Amino acid sequence: EAAKAKAEADKKEAMAALQAELEADAKGKESAEAVAALKDFGVNTLGARMKKFWRLPPNIPENLSVKIFVKLDRSGNVVKASIKQSSGYKLFDDAALRAVHDASPLPMPKHPGAVDALVSDGIITRFDP
Fold first, then answer.
1. Quick check: pTM over 0.85?
2. I want to staple 65 with a disulfide (CB 3.0 to 4.6 A). Which of 15, 50, 123, 128 is the partner?
């Protein structure tokens, strides 16, 4: 029970750190609405789509996470995906990259500034299924 609570607290802390990183990455480029749309896309849209295509390799430790850089075209197709911060397990990282590519094309945000940022700068997302 305590381990489960700690894992949940760690996940919340990681999400807060990721949101702060997304905000810092988007600051100065776009309006507050575009920043909000980017955060929503990175945390909700991309993560949810990846989970649909996720195939966890066998014998992988629990509570792993990986940060992935993703760049899209205007149609939502993944044009580049790379590991920004490894989980420490190559099979896990490779499966996360496969999930990103398999989830393509992604539904793009409605805000044009957010779309511009995804196309020109890409986004970093944390994946921890």
1. no
2. 128
